[in-house]
Amino acid sequence: MESYLAELRSVSQAVLAVSGTLGTRDALAAIVRSARTLVDARYAALGVPDDRGSFAEFVTDGISQARQRAIGPLPRQHGMLAALLKSGVPERLTDIRTDPRFEGWPAAHPEMTGFLGVPVRRGAEVLGIIFVANKRSGEFTDRDEELLTLFAAHAAIALSNERLYERSREASVLEERARLARELHDAVSQRLFSIRAHARAAEILVGKDPALVSAELAAIADIGAQAHAELRAVIDGLAPPELDGLAESLRRYAQLAARAYGVEVLVTAPELPELEPRVQAAAFRVGQEALNNALRHAAATKISVRLTRTSRRVVLEVSDDGTGFEPALAAAGASGGLGLASMRERAAAVGGTLRITSEPGVGTKVRLAVPA
Question: Distance between CA atoms of 361 and 208, rounded to whole angstroms?
Answer without folding.
Answer: 45
